[in-house]
């Protein structure tokens, strides 16, 4: 083997050892720490109907494609936090008539031969329970599954806006953070009167 090849192989092996060491340290910290590494911004508090829907979700193997309540796969959409985006009726309509409700083609939900076509054929009671389950999966403001951005100033969001958004955009559009702040002020004024 030539000297250059030995150096390249040595560098690759060294990088592999460093990566394995970092992974081991991160796993050790996450397993021994009382606090989560990342702040958890999704939560659920199942209603009785939502609990029935969770049972339907598990019995129907929905977790083989979706992730919810911290379990399942990432093959399909993660369901955690969806309840902050839509209401029970939207979820029921989506489960019954996926492509009409979504207003676009879906990968797995819809008419046969789609893989999850069986969902729209479930009895209404099961669909209502599944819809309640999905609506109980909430997210906190600032999570990736929330419509609302993080509270207060965000240097990251401001840097992205400065980098990617054309100058003068505020003359055409409203920053959602400003819109939310003005709505909160209006709500406070309404409660005072």
Work out the helicity level: 40-55%
Instruction: Report the count of strand segments.
Output: 4
Tell me what the CATH architecture of the domain at 42-139 is: Orthogonal Bundle
As residue ranges, the low-confidence spans are none
Distance between the termini: 84 Å
Envelope shape: extended
Tally of helical runs: 8
Biggest sheet descriptor: 2 strands, antiparallel
Level-1 CATH class name of the domain at 42-139: Mainly Alpha
Structural class: mainly alpha
Average per-residue pLDDT, rounded, comes to: 90
Rg computed from alpha carbons, rounded to a whole number of angstroms: 23 Å
Could you characterize the architecture of this molecule?
The chain is mainly α and about 190 residues long. Among the domains are: about 40-140, Cytochrome c-like domain (Cytochrome Bc1 Complex, Chain D, domain 2, Orthogonal Bundle); about 155-185, no CATH class. It is built from eight helices and four strands. The chain has helices spanning about 5-30, 50-60, 90-95, 100, 115-120, 125-135, 155-165, 175-190, and strands at about 40-45, 65-70, 70, 135-140. The strands form two sheets. Strands 1-4 form a two-stranded antiparallel ribbon. It has a two-stranded antiparallel ribbon with strand order 2-3. Helix 2 (about 50-60) packs across helix 6 and helix 3 (about 90-95) crosses helix 6. The longest helix is centred in the N-terminal third of the chain and has 30 residues, at about 5-30. The model has no long low-confidence stretch (mean pLDDT about 90).
């Amino acid at each position: 083997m030539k000297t250059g090849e030995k150096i390249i192989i040595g560098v690759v092996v060294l990088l592999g050892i460093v990566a394995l060491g970092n992974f081991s340290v991160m796993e050790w910290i996450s397993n021994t720490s009382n606090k989560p590494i990342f702040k958890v911004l999704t939560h659920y508090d199942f209603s009785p109907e939502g609990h029935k829907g969770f049972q339907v979700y598990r019995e129907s193997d929905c977790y083989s494609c979706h992730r919810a309540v911290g379990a399942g796969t990432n093959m399909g959409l993660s369901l955690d936090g969806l309840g902050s985006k839509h209401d029970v009726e939207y979820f029921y309509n989506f489960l019954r008539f996926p492509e009409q409700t979504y207003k676009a083609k879906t990968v797995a939900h819809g008419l046969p031969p789609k893989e999850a076509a069986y969902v729209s054929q479930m009895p209404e009671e099961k669909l209502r329970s599944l819809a309640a389950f999905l609506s109980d999966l909430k997210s906190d403001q600032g999570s990736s599954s929330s419509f609302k951005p993080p509270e207060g100033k965000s240097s990251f969001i401001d840097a992205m806006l400065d980098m990617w958004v054309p100058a003068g955009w505020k003359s055409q559009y409203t920053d959602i953070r400003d819109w939310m702040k003005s709505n909160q002020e209006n709500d406070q004024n309404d409660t005072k009167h």
